[in-house]
Design brief:
The protein is mainly alpha-helical. It has one domain. Helices cover 78% and strands 0% of the residues. The longest helix is centred in the C-terminal third of the chain and has 32 residues. The chain is globular and about 55 Å long. The N and C termini lie far apart (39 Å).
Length: 204
């Protein structure tokens, strides 16, 4: 069915690039000894994405972001948060051996950080509204919900897969050196996103 296939292809196109949300989920998968300990981060990111996709498809998000002061506030808060996230990732130093605690956050902090990187990332929000929201306009009724369900389904599968990949890397890297380099690369990506968000703030 065309709406289903369209939703799957579009979702993969948007979610595959290495962004802040992906980096955080991967790191949590790598950091924890048990995969289930990273579930709070995975579930929170997936639920936040589901909410944003739903709002984009129903058009609610477009109405909200028509308020210029709200848009500006979102970009400013997003820049500050991303800059802070990059600093935290850069400073994270994995310990060696069985006691490795790289980026290992409590369930509460995982939920807070995952919600923040999902909801305070203006670039991701604009992608959701501009691409997914706009693409959904060609469908109505049942077809629109097939499209929406496909996008949401890919989002959930991707976050679980990303955490599993991180878990495998964490098991392989017993010295912690690789995770340290991944954390530093993650920090650079996050800071690049922060600068992009800042540039968007001044371009409006």
């Amino acid at each position: 069915m065309e709406p289903l296939l369209h939703g799957i292809v579009l979702a993969f196109g948007l979610i595959l690039p290495l962004g802040v949300q992906n980096v955080f989920i991967f790191n949590q998968g790598a950091a924890h000894r048990k995969f289930s300990h990273a579930w709070p981060a995975i579930m929170t990111a997936a639920i936040c994405d589901t909410m944003l996709i739903y709002l984009a498809v129903t058009g609610v998000s477009v109405v909200v972001l028509n308020f210029e002061w709200l848009r500006t506030s979102l970009f400013l808060v997003g820049f500050l948060f991303l800059a802070y996230m990059g600093w935290v990732m850069w400073r994270t130093t994995p310990e060696k051996g069985a006691h490795q605690r790289s980026s290992r956050l409590s369930a509460k902090r995982q939920i807070t950080f995952a919600a923040s990187v999902s909801l305070l990332n203006p670039h991701a929000i604009m992608d959701t509204i501009g691409v997914i929201g706009t693409s959904s306009l060609v469908y109505t009724g049942e077809e629109k919900w097939f499209f929406t369900s496909a996008v949401i389904g890919v989002s959930w599968i991707w976050f679980f897969s990303l955490a599993i990949a991180g878990r495998k890397v964490g098991q392989f890297d017993t010295s912690g050196r690789l995770l340290k380099r991944i954390n530093q690369l993650s920090a650079l990506i996050v800071w690049a996103m922060a600068l992009f968000v800042l540039s968007q703030l001044f371009s409006h």
